[in-house]
Amino acid sequence: MMSAAAVRVSHPTGKLSGTAILPASKSEANRALIIRALTGEDFLIHNLSDANDTQLLNRILSTPAGEEVSAEDAGTVMRFLTAYYAATGQKLVLTGTPRMCQRPIGVLVDALRTLGADIEYLGEEGYPPMRMKGFSGTGTNQLSVRSDISSQYISALLMIGPLLPQGLELTLEGKISSAPYIRMTLAQMAHFGVQAKFEGNHISVPAQKYQAKEFTVESDWSAASYWYSMTALAQEADVFLPALRFNSLQGDSVLPELMVPFGVKTEFTENGVRLTKQPKEEKPERIDFSDCPDLAQTVAALAAGIKVEVEMTGLESLRIKETDRIAALQNEVQKFGAALTEVEPDVFKLILEKQPENEARVHTYEDHRMAMAFAPLALKLPLVVEEPKVVRKSYPRYWEELQKAGFEVEEVQ
Ligand SMILES: O=C(O)C1=C[C@@H](OP(=O)(O)O)[C@@H](O)[C@H](O)C1
Ligand SMILES: C=C(OP(=O)(O)O)C(=O)O
């Protein structure tokens, strides 16, 4: 199924029940892997994600680096390794997929150069591939970095901060996008014995040593979002998601609150989360995705599927992810009778225009979240998802878990 050109997805009963297995968080796993590499010691990371983004980083870090390393399509791998190779003075070429070479990295490279890294762009200035040429460490420890493009640049810098001779004093300029991911980085650094201070727009990381220590990766709240969407779309639903925690490091754990207006009830139990349907109480208001950009596609697809008009903001960073996610959403929601229109700068309104297509064919733009966000709409009408293998980036078992939940997933051309 993973290699099929497309899958036809349907759900004969529209009723969902049972347990769905989530992948572990690739964000937490990739931070733990980088920090483990920085300690130079071996310790166990439990529940390491089977996501390709994590398996790839684990492979790269556990084998001697050759002359060229590919981060493939994994943003965290590209950004975290750039800082890691800079700080450890490794000399090699860092590249990725053609799309990765269109995802900007200039803010991070400029910051690392200021710290004393020698980095050369091999293609377009500001974009991978880059040649990492060593680290002189003669730079300052004071940095001002734009924080409105990607938090991954900040996380990458923070993780190498304790190893720099004078630590790191980081001033964040502009809006702080994806802020929970910065807090996740600091929380994981604290787990490994490194104390930092985040006040206002300033982060201070004194020079320190990481302590080798086991770490357990939590289940992935971003992946849970697709089960929230399925619960909202099903006629009846009672879904159990094991191992999700209320006190999560992940910003996407806002889902229980965010999904109330869509009619999903969340109960936390000792072993995980139970999702059931409840009446849709109120119309969802304008939703700001600045702190949880990976949930935007889930919500846009769901709103089209349950025919709820919604306003979405905080979407700037979506243009530079696995694909231009705004353009991709605008194309695909149309097939479900909706339109996503920018009504004022950075405010997008999803409105309902016409009847959904019979058996819509969803294009996935090499973006795992396009496949996973639209597949739940099969609870309403059968649909076709192209390039189903894209899910391997973060949730390789996605289609198997759908089948367990009563979906029919059949290979087609
Ligand atoms: O640090 C991380 O693990 C991530 C940060 C976010 O990216 P941006 O900071 O680029 O928004 C998020 O979209 C991505 O899936 C994972
Ligand atoms: C944006 C994502 O990943 P990355 O930026 O790490 O490629 C994602 O998983 O939605």
From TrEMBL:
Keywords: Amino-acid biosynthesis, Aromatic amino acid biosynthesis, Cytoplasm, Transferase. 3-phosphoshikimate binds at residues 26-27, 31, 150-152, 178, 294, 321. Phosphoenolpyruvate binds at residues 26, 75, 103, 152, 325, 369, 393. PROSITE patterns: EPSP_SYNTHASE_2. It comes from the Bacteria. Pathway: Metabolic intermediate biosynthesis; chorismate biosynthesis; chorismate from D-erythrose 4-phosphate and phosphoenolpyruvate: step 6/7. The active site is at 294 (proton acceptor). Its EC number is 2.5.1.19. Residues 64-402 form the Enolpyruvate transferase domain. SUPFAM superfamilies: EPT/RTPC-like. Belongs to the EPSP synthase family. Catalyzes the transfer of the enolpyruvyl moiety of phosphoenolpyruvate (PEP) to the 5-hydroxyl of shikimate-3-phosphate (S3P) to produce enolpyruvyl shikimate-3-phosphate and inorganic phosphate. This is 3-phosphoshikimate 1-carboxyvinyltransferase. It comes from Rufibacter roseus. The lineage of its organism: Bacteria, Pseudomonadati, Bacteroidota, Cytophagia, Cytophagales.
